[in-house]
Amino acid sequence: MEPVLVTGAAGGRQGSTGRHVTRLLLERGRPVRAFVRADDARAAELRSWGAEVVVGDLREITSVIPALQGVRRAFFTYPVTEGMLDATAVFAAAARREGLEQVVEVSQLAADPYAGTPHMRRHWVSEQVFDRAEVGAVHLRAAVFFENLAVVADAGGGRELRLPLGSPETVLPLVAAADVARVAAGLLTAPAGEADPICRLTGEIMTIGQAAKTFGGGLTYVDQDPEEWRREAMALYDDTVAVEHLSHLWELFRVIGSGHDLYQVTEAIERIGGRPPLTLHDYTSTPSSP
Known about the structure:
By secondary structure, the chain is of the alpha/beta class. Helix content is about 45%, strand content about 20%.
C-alpha cells in the first residue's frame, strides 16, 4: 500500500492538524510519510509511531518532488507565516508531476478573493493553484481553531482572555483542530473523487464571552485596544504574518458582531469524520492528544 504524505506532521501551536492526521492514518493501518522541517524530538516520536519521516522545506522543489514519489494522496497544511503561496505552488507542481489523485488541504472558512483578511485572500489563491494543478484537491475551509483562543488564554495567565473583539456578545465560528484532522483522515481513506472540492468545517458557534466562561478557572474576556493587542501579539507570536492575519481577523469579527450566514455548525464533521464535532467544553475538559 502506497504511503500518504502528510505535511506539518511535527505539529505546532496553530492546531497541529498534520500531527493529528498522521496519528489517525496510522491507527487505521495506512502507511504515512511524514514531512517535517527539522529532524528533532518530534520527528523521532513520529518514527516511534511507525511513520516514515522525510525532512525538507515545502518551498523547495528539490525537497518536495522526492517526498511525493510513490505517493497517490497527500495532506497539505502550512502555518500562518510567510511562504504559504510559495509552498502551495511548489507542492501543486510536484503533485501534478508525480500524478497524485488527491490533495486534501487546509484553508479558511471565508476564503475568497475579497475576504476581509489578506491571509484569507491568499488562501483563496492557494485553492485556485491546487485546482488548476488537477490533483483532486479538497479544500477544508475551517473556522477559528479552539487552539487560537487557548494560546491567548495561556498568555493571559489563565485569568484574562484579552482580544480586540468589542462586546462580549461578539460571535465566533469555532472548530477543534482534531475535528479538521478527522475529516482529512476520512477523506484520505475514502474512494477518491467522491468529496465536494470545498468542505466547510465549523463545530460550534458561541460568543467570546461564552468562550471565556467555557475555559473555566475564572477566565474573563477583556476587550483590548487593537493597537495594544498588536504590540502584545508580536511578543507572543514573533511573526508579522500571524499578527497581520489575526489583527484583521479579530477586527472582522468585531465588525460583524452578532453573526454571519457562514456561521453554522457543518454536518461534514460527523458525516466524514465519523462523530459529532467536539465542543469547546470537550476541548477544555480532555487532555490534549498528540
